[in-house]
From TrEMBL:
Belongs to the UPP synthase family. Pfam families: Prenyltransf (PF01255). InterPro entries: UPP_synth-like (IPR001441), UPP_synth-like_CS (IPR018520), UPP_synth-like_sf (IPR036424). GO terms for biological process: cell wall organization; peptidoglycan biosynthetic process; polyprenol biosynthetic process; regulation of cell shape. This is Ditrans,polycis-undecaprenyl-diphosphate synthase ((2E,6E)-farnesyl-diphosphate specific).
Amino acid sequence: MPGDMPAPYLPRHVAIIMDGNGRWAQQRRRPRMIGHRAGARAVNRSIDFCLERGIAALTLFAFSSENWGRPQEEVDALMKLFLGALDREVDELDRRGVRVRFIGERSRFAAGIAQRMENAERRTAGNAAMALNIAASYGGRQDIAHAARQLAEQVAAGTLAPEQVDEQALSRHVALADLPAPDLFIRTGGDTRISNFLLWQLAYTELWFTDVLWPDVDAGLLQQALDDYARRERRFGLTSAQVATAPTESNSQ
Ligand code: FPP
């Protein structure tokens, strides 16, 4: 949303890497899936929190392109968990005005799951209270490569000149191009990496890390992240004085 000024204190778009489910289960000497199930409850708490605070978009990293390499048993169980959550939650999300979208390689999912993703998207497409984006089989580099390929196809077809391939053009073709870029990125579980999540979109995002494991996330912790965010000054490459007097674009600078 170029031209739009970020609300100074409340992030419009929050992106989260939900890490630590496995360790949460391990600490309790339980199977990893117990951690993922507890993680699904933390997903619900986070959605509630963002809706209550009036955050316009929430993007969750549910499953990376690399996660396909986990033991087959865990991948299968995760797919079952996603399906169950989709079936259970989509009515309620729809009722609350949430627009659900999935980003990532849809074609890698079994037909039944891909179909349900599509149904959830279609069903909630007209909602505007909050955009909930689930990154599933998603990778940031793949997202950028896909955008580059689309531009290359336009150049090859003669509908785009090579000199029109610039940041703005690429921004229009990466995932979530219609939303403001994330203002705040949160990663739980103690690692301080971006792990191939929304690489393009996070260029100017405020990063916030916590050791808390994802299943333990609650409104109190999310509020801490928002409070820290509100204290930070976002300069988009300008000086403090410039930012104080001349609001600038948020998405691509
Ligand atoms: C990372 O923890 C978490 C995942 C790979 C899966 C995320 C899934 C959920 C939060 C469950 C439900 C989600 C939805 C959208 C309904 P990890 O397994 O890497 O934890 P570890 O680093 O402690 O092993």
